[in-house]
Structures are given as C-alpha cells and as structure tokens.
Specification:
It is a single chain. The protein is mostly beta strands. The chain contains no helices and 21 strands. The strands form four sheets. It has a ten-stranded antiparallel beta sheet, with no helix packed on it. The chain is elongated, with a radius of gyration of 22 Å.
C-alpha cells in the first residue's frame, strides 16, 4: 500500500525463496529476480547443493560461495520443512570436497552410506532407514557398586550392543539387542521388521560384528541408509545428504 512504508518481498521464480526488493539475484539459488537469468557470479561457485525431487529429478541448485548456511530461515524450499532448524547446516567448499557442519540443529544432518560397504558405528550413533530413526548403543557389563553388590539383569554374553527406536527428543521406544551373529533390518525380512514403512526395503540393512567393532551395511536398499553427521565432516562430489525431509546432492 502506497505510503505505508512497507515493501513486499520478491519471490524467486526458480526456488520460491523470498528476497528483499532491492536484491538483483536470489540469495538462495542465485537466479536473476528481475530478468530470470542466472547470477553471473554463480559460475564461480566451486560446488553446489542440489535438491532432489521425490521422483529422483533435480530441483533447485544452491551455489556454495565460501561458507554457506542453510535452514528454514532461508525460505524457499526450506521454509515448509518443520524438521529443519532456522540455521540448520553450513557448507564450506574446498579442493575437491565440501566440509559439512551441523549448526547445532535439532534434527541433524544425515549422509547416505554406500551400499554393501561396512560403516563402523560409534557409541550413540544415530542412523535413519525410511522414516525410522534409530540409535546404536554399546552394551557393557555393569560393575558392582562400592559395596561389591552386583546389579541384577539378563546376562550379556553373546550380545555386542543394541539399537533403540527414537520416538522424539529424549524419548525412546523398543530396543533390540544385537547378537554377535548380527541383526538384519527390513520391511519384510530380517529380525527387526518395519512392516508399515513403505520407504524401507524388504531387506534394508544389516548390523554385523567383527573384531570388537559393530558395523552398519546398506544391503542395496531403494531409499538408502543414512548416518548422522557429528560436528563437521568432509563430503565429496555426488554424496547424498538428508536434512529434515529433503534430500540433497553435493555437486562439484
């Protein structure tokens, strides 16, 4: 309204992000806001973060110029994902790699592990298959108390850890012990089944034990197995990340 002193945001036609009226290029994807053309500086980006659509096609591309922070505060494709924090993750491109850092987000960043390759799990490691969020925990024998009294409980011989279903922040559900012989997870086959999750493959992944280490292996699932990034980690060209409910591919 004239004379009101307020101006409306300019919506990017490529990614839908709101921008200040004085901006020439979209702050999220670099698209020209007035002529629809690309930002001439976009070609200088050494890496991009490409959103992946549900059908596997590519969506908006976000150029990574120096350290780039993304989250719900960016608007556009991030705005409607309530599982994203306002400042969720940052990306720093380098020589043939991108350093991905979790900006203390509530729900984290997950990277897809290659199929048929063992990934070593650490204490408290979180991973996702389909819509299931799972926490790995080592199982260690309880020591007697200061008076030498043993704790009651089932013996742990033959078990090397457990996985626990994460239901919410600080809320956990069913736990499954991991025997030395391993544990298979899937929708139709395995010792742990997720029959109602259509994003989980029939036989999705396996937990195995070897030389004192528990490993997670994706068994060629359709939608992948993802492990949560801790702090900052280095990713390379083609790696797939999961933030909130959106998949992204790193392109260099």
């Amino acid at each position: 309204m004239a004379g009101s002193g307020t101006t409306e945001a300019v919506i990017c036609t490529r990614c839908g992000s709101p921008n200040e009226p004085t901006h020439k290029f979209c702050s999220s994807c670099g698209n020209g806001l007035h002529d629809g053309g690309p930002n001439p500086h976009e070609a200088e980006a050494s890496a991009r973060l490409i959103a992946l659509n549900p059908d596997g096609s590519e969506g908006a591309a976000i150029p990574l110029h120096g350290k780039t922070t993304v989250g719900r505060a960016n608007g556009g494709l991030f705005a409607q994902d309530l599982f994203l924090s306002p400042r969720h993750a940052s990306f720093m491109p380098g020589q043939g790699q991108v350093v991905v850092e979790d900006e203390r987000s509530l729900n984290g960043i997950y990277r897809r592990i290659p199929a048929d390759q063992r990934f070593p799990l650490d204490q408290g490691q979180m991973f996702r298959i389909g819509q299931e969020l799972i926490r790995f925990e080592e199982v260690m024998a309880s020591m007697p108390d200061e008076q030498g009294v043993e704790y009651m409980g089932a013996p742990i011989e033959g078990y090397v850890g457990r996985i626990t279903m994460v239901l919410g922040r600080g809320t956990y559900g069913t736990a499954f012990p991991i025997p030395e012989t391993g544990l298979n997870l899937g929708r139709e086959r395995g010792e742990v089944l997720f029959a109602d999750d259509g994003y989980v493959s029939g036989l999705h992944c396996r937990l195995s034990f070897d030389a004192g280490q528990v490993y997670l292996t994706d068994l060629g699932s359709s939608n992948g197995t993802f492990v949560r990034i801790r702090g900052s980690e280095t990713c390379r060209n083609g790696e797939i990340l999961l933030m909130g409910q959106q998949l992204f591919r790193i392109a260099m």
